[in-house]
Amino acid sequence: MRLNFKDLIIFENDDYIIINKPPYIASLDERQADNSQSILRLAKEYSDDAQLAHRLDKETSGALAIAKNPAAYRHLAMQFEHRQVEKRYHAVVNGAHDFEMISVYLPIAQKRDGTQVMIDRQKGKEAETIFNTIKVYRNHTLVECMPITGRMHQIRIHLVCLKAPIVCDPTYGGEFIYLSDLKRKFNLKKDTDELPLMKRVALHSRSLTFKLLNEEVIAVEAPYPKDFEVLVKQLEKFS
Fold first, then answer.
1. Which residue range or ranges hold the Pseudouridine synthase RsuA/RluA-like domain (predicted)?
2. Is-catalytic flag, 57?
3. Catalytic: which of 34, 48, 57, 113?
4. What are 108-140's pLDDT values in tens digits?
5. What one-character-per-residue DSSP string does 4-51 give?
């Protein structure tokens, strides 16, 4: 199914587009030559000089900023570099946790194969994330994550350090979440396997705050995609 780029836009002016990126679509073209769509490719079809100012993992949904011209790109790239862009993510994690401005400041290194990361106090790159609890459910928590740096899988590994791995993230020990875990009375049809409530890492880029070219500060919020919304609604309902 081909995505309509216009449908993803949540903010646009002469310089920037902010989209609500759907899950399962890569930010940049992937190395495999299967010609699958990427956000960058769709953005360039929509606006010739489009450049992504940052990227989100393929499974991660939410607010993603795209520059429409070189000056806009430089302006936002510098803000990312100087850590002046405020990024807020929402994650559903395993366990009940009470985080109040908890800062995890632990260096991150990529593992040999480059697909995973680990905490490495010797060779790792500086990384910091701040965590706040939004809502505690029975065995899960909705957490706001504010990455100060932008390392690969930073939020995921830092949450592991707090013994709060993101649900549906087997790479980092996050357990899948099933309706039967939440619902006391649950009857599954005979000879069927229960599917998890969410099939991807439960992480969503909720908002971006940065300065436009005229120095005006803008904050753009991305609504939850369907799978994330369903997960949160079920947690609300049965907690």
1. 15-159
2. yes
3. 57
4. 999 998 899 999 999 999 999 999 999 999 999
5. -HHHHEEEE-SSEEEEEEPTT-BSS--SS-S---BHHHHHHHHSTT-E
